[in-house]
């Protein structure tokens, strides 16, 4: 029996990425991963938000290191998925086949987190603990922060909020 039976694919992928790809690059684990841990749920994926800093140097480091990793990845200019908001400050997104995304942004990661589409996702991992960093805590109600969210994403966030907090949106 594996000692990792209670670790999600996202957590295992996250550990590998932190250790071998982003170890000297400023980043945050943010969004659903931290939110799920805050609510005692097993995360399904993890998002790393990386400060682009010197953009070409950061992207080159990430590309070089990912090329040595035992998983495949696809690099995008921005999210093209209906499951994500379409934000302008993103420089690149690396989608790894280990349930991890690395999002490189041209603004500090904590500022990006505060702009996530819904307050339900305004969580980060801080010293191994999930912390809410937004303005309006979701226990007080679901708040859509970004106006340009696709209807499917809105419906998904409402369902998730109801699972976590109750019925009053």
Give the SSE map.
Elements: H1 9-20, E1 27-30, H2 32-38, E2 46-51, H3 55-67, E3 73-76, E4 90-96, E5 100-105, H4 109-113, E6 123-126, E7 129-132, H5 151-165
Parallel strand pairs: 2-5
Antiparallel strand pairs: 1-2, 3-4, 4-5, 6-7
Task: Identify the notable features of this structure and list them briefly.
disordered N terminus, 7 strands, alpha+beta, 169 residues, 5 helices, two-stranded antiparallel sheet
Describe this structure in words.
- With 169 residues, this protein is an alpha+beta fold.
- 31% of the residues lie in helices and 21% in strands.
- It is built from 5 helices and 7 strands, in the order H-E-H-E-H-E-E-E-H-E-E-H.
- It has helices at 9-20, 32-38, 55-67, 109-113, 151-165; strands at 27-30, 46-51, 73-76, 90-96, 100-105, 123-126, 129-132.
- The strands form 2 sheets. A 5-stranded mixed beta sheet has the order 1-2-5-4-3. Strands 6-7 form a two-stranded antiparallel ribbon.
- Strand 6 and strand 7 form a beta hairpin.
- The longest helix has 15 residues, at 151-165.
- The protein is globular and about 45 Å long.
- It starts with 8 loop residues before the first helix and ends with a helix.
- Residues 1-5 have low confidence and may be disordered.
The total of helices stands at 5
- Mean of all residue-level pLDDT scores: 85
Radius of gyration, in Å, reads 16 Å
Class computed from helices, strands and strand pairing: alpha+beta
Q: Estimate what percentage of residues fall within beta strands.
A: 15-25%
For the largest beta sheet, what order do the strands appear in spatially? 1-2-5-4-3
Largest sheet: 5 strands, mixed
Low-confidence stretches: 1-5
Question: Which descriptor suits the 3D outline?
Answer: globular
Q: How much helix, percentage-wise, in residues?
A: 25-40%
End-to-end separation in angstroms reads 43 Å
Query: What is the tally of beta strands?
Result: 7
- Helix-strand topology string: HEHEHEEEHEEH
């Amino acid at each position: 029996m594996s000692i990792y039976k209670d670790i999600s694919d996202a957590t295992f992928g996250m550990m590998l990425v932190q250790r071998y790809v982003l170890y000297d690059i400023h980043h945050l684990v943010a969004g659903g991963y931290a939110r799920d841990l805050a609510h005692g749920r097993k995360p399904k994926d993890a998002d790393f938000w990386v400060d682009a800093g010197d953009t070409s140097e950061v992207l080159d480091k990430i590309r070089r290191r990912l090329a040595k990793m035992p998983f495949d990845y696809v690099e995008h200019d921005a999210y093209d998925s209906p499951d994500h908001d379409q934000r302008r400050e993103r420089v690149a997104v690396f989608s790894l086949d280990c349930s991890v995304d690395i999002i490189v942004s041209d603004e500090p990661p904590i500022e990006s987190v505060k702009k996530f589409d819904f307050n339900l996702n305004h969580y980060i991992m801080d010293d191994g603990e999930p912390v809410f960093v937004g303005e309006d805590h979701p226990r007080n109600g679901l708040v859509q922060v970004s106006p340009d969210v696709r209807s499917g994403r809105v419906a998904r966030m409402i369902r998730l909020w109801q699972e976590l907090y109750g019925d009053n949106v």
